[in-house]
Amino acid sequence: MEYRRLGPAGLKVSLLSFGSWVTFGPQLKGDLVLDCLAAARDAGVNFFDNAEAYAGGESERIMGQAFAEMGWPRHSYVVSTKLFWGLEEGVVNMKNTLNRKYLMHAIDGSLERFGLDFVDLLFCHRPDPETPIEETVWAMSDIVSSGKALYWGTSEWSADEIRAAWDVAERHHLHKPVMEQPQYNMLARRKVEREYARLYDDIGLGLTTWSPLASGLLSGKYIDGIPEGSRGALPGYEWLRKSLTNPESTSAMKDLKAVADGLDCTMSQLALAWCARNPRVSTVITGASRVEQVRENMEALDVLALLSDDVVARIDEITKPLAH
After folding, report:
1. pLDDT at position 91 over 70
2. DSSP summary character for residue 55
3. How many CB atoms are located within 10 Å of the residue 34 CB?
4. Cα angle at 182 between 147 and 216, to 5 degrees?
5. Statement: residue 27 has pLDDT above 60
6. The domain spanning residue 189 has which CATH number?
7. Of 3, 54, 200, 222, which one is the catalytic site residue?
8. What is the spatial distance between Cα 293 and Cα 27, in angstroms, rounded to a whole number?
9. With 90 as the cut, is the pLDDT of residue 226 above it?
10. Is 160 inside a domain boundary?
């Protein structure tokens, strides 16, 4: 496993990490969670990603219970959560916000569900146009100062919003945002490769990227339709099915499979290696619903060395027409 610094921070995270979005709760419970986390750790993963909103808070509880049951020393892993959506229905100030009141309540709720004294990384899960950015920056900095989080950052913020937050922190000598968590894969490139380009050198922005398989499309599992038990078949993911099975995407995935076959790897491994090839990426967050998937994903590191300029050019030729 390779370990990269998280942007300007001294903290190092595994190049491939393990996240709980979608899977923890609906697909992963009990011993299966323990087995998947253990397989990831055995491969050298030290960063585990989560969020308050995943499975309505249950994902944090499941992961925290697994950490405790496996007896991992707290210093041996890095764990994150993300705040914005809220869990309280019908309560003013506690949903879809980054105001100070919500953030102070929400971090305590997350820590209680995890059974931890602190999280290593705390993200603002989305920007909040209704809360002054100064208020959010002060609150996040105070959470770090309190020891309830070690570093803070953003997720799916624009470059202008990240820079504005950083400037507020710089001006008032507060804890600065050090990382962003954007979607990044062969089909979602604009933010990482273009919009954030100046932030890497200007403020040292680090990236913990999500959805490297484009919700499973780049795994090739949807080439012949929606398999039973897959993410595309889950209740509530009807919005995803159309994009997974449109003829243009299916044709491109068949061409991409030929590239993977030529490298003697799976499409998932090819997609993960492609993301990891970007030196601006601190860690690529993987997901899995089976231990076998965890092990397959981790082998993507072996594919990284096979991504020659010619191979990458062919991947671009296939995927760029569909990218955004």
Report:
1. yes
2. G
3. 16
4. 120
5. no
6. 3.20.20.100
7. 54
8. 13
9. no
10. yes
Using CA atoms, how far apart are residues 319 and 322, in angstroms rounded to an integer?
6
Q: Greater confidence, 274 or 251?
A: 274
Residues 133-158: b if buried by 16+ CB within 10 A, e if exposed: bebbbbbbbebbeeebbbbbbbbbbe
User: Residue 260 pLDDT more than 90?
Assistant: yes
Q: Name which of 132, 109, 139, 107 is nearest 121 in CA terms.
A: 107
Please choose, from the candidates 99, 28, 110, 17, the residue with its C-alpha nearest in 3D space to the C-alpha of residue 291.
28
Q: Is residue 308 in some structural domain?
A: no
Q: Is residue 232 part of a domain?
A: no
Residue at 247: amino acid letter: P
Full residue range of the structural domain in which residue 31 is found: 3-217+278-300
Active site residue 54: yes
Distance set, CA 1 to CA 121, 128, 146, 232, 285 (Å): 20, 36, 32, 30, 14
Q: Which residues are CB-neighbours of 261 under 8 A, at least 6 positions away?
A: none
User: What are the tens digits of pLDDT across the range 159-207?
Assistant: 999 999 999 999 999 999 999 999 999 999 999 999 999 999 999 999 9
Q: How many residues are given for the chain?
A: 324
CA within 13 Å, CB half, 65 = 14
Q: How far apart are the first and last CA of the chain?
A: 30
Tens digits of per-residue pLDDT, 112-153?
999 999 999 999 999 999 999 999 999 999 999 999 999 999
Residue 292 is predicted with a pLDDT of 94
Per the structure, the count of domains in the chain is 1
The mean per-residue pLDDT over the stretch 83-103 comes to 96
Q: Is residue 234 part of a domain?
A: no
Cα–Cα distance, 292 to 268 (Å, whole number): 12
